[in-house]
Specification:
The chain is mainly alpha-helical. The chain contains eleven helices and four strands; from the N terminus they run E-E-E-H-H-E-H-H-H-H-H-H-H-H-H. The strands form two sheets. A two-stranded antiparallel sheet has the order 1-4. A two-stranded antiparallel ribbon has the order 2-3.
Length: 376
Amino acid sequence: MRSTLFSISLNGQVDLGPLGRVPVFGAGLLLGLWCLVVIAYIALTVRREGWKGLSELSLVVWGVVALAIFKAAELQMKAIPVYGYGTMLFVGFVGSALIAARRLRQEGVDGEIAWDAAMWIFISGLLGARAFYVVQYHSRFFGDDPLTGNPRTAWETFTGLINLPDGGLVLYGGLIFGPLAFYFFSRKRGIRPLAFSDLAITSVFIGVMFGRLGCLLHGCCFGGVAPDLPWAITFPANSVPFDSLVARGLIQKTATCSLPLHPSQIYDAISALLLAFFTYAYYPYRRWTGEVVALGWIAYPINRFMIEFLRSDEKGQFGTPLTIAQWVSMGLFASGIAFYVICYKMSCGRLPIAIDERAALKPATSPQAGVPAKAH
């Protein structure tokens, strides 16, 4: 576990001898570097696609980060912490987009679309995951503060809602909101959402894998007690699993670490990687548009349902031992089966990803992209 990987000093200096001390980091320097990155991004995008190629959402994200850097100086922060969870989300975002962009180019479609799509999915998925968490744990944000017993103010509620560094994302919320943004983005950019999703589902699982590694670094989504498990892991004092075990009376507050636990985060990361390999390998052999994403839709809930039995961070719901994630998994599994059947019955074979020339770099002539398979 390493919730904070390192901190970037905002007032660090390097001694250059007779040349004096030169600032290495600083809010102003960071803001200047960020502005250069934004300018380079806009210039490259306009050069390749024209002004219409700029995504409104991506510009908003660039601006929000610049504002955050500016506010860091105003708050006189001494350092900016780099969190393990956020870093893993970023690595997953970049890795997923790189893989999707490369595969889109192989299909004869502009790879830049993958980056814009990743931005839309990432932001909407983040909002969905946070919203799902807030609904599931609404008592942590609304009502009386359990520490003081006083009603929370509107400001306390607001800051709690946006305090992502403290954790608080539920994957299924992102998996519900993300596809909605994906659909509208695809229609806007002139590509078929279902055909694109067959390719993109691999990148989604890559993102899930890195997200679970982020959970491991943060200490959330931990497994059940497993004292005799050879590969069990422990978490340090004052971590999320440690505090949970203290609250249950399983360990004393003076203990140095938690009890040995199932590494459920690693289980989920490995299973997500296996699903990524499966969907990638099956893609060339798909029989109709939508088959790959349908298989992923069916497979992941099965995996999540089983792993939930090894976790101990959630209680059963609706008078059953099943967690909320297991209930959602059953719903997703059933809807995945229905989706598979619908795609099978309405199949027109393999359809190309690009609908019009706005998305295509060249005619999609590869067997995987443009030659329809036999309809079923």
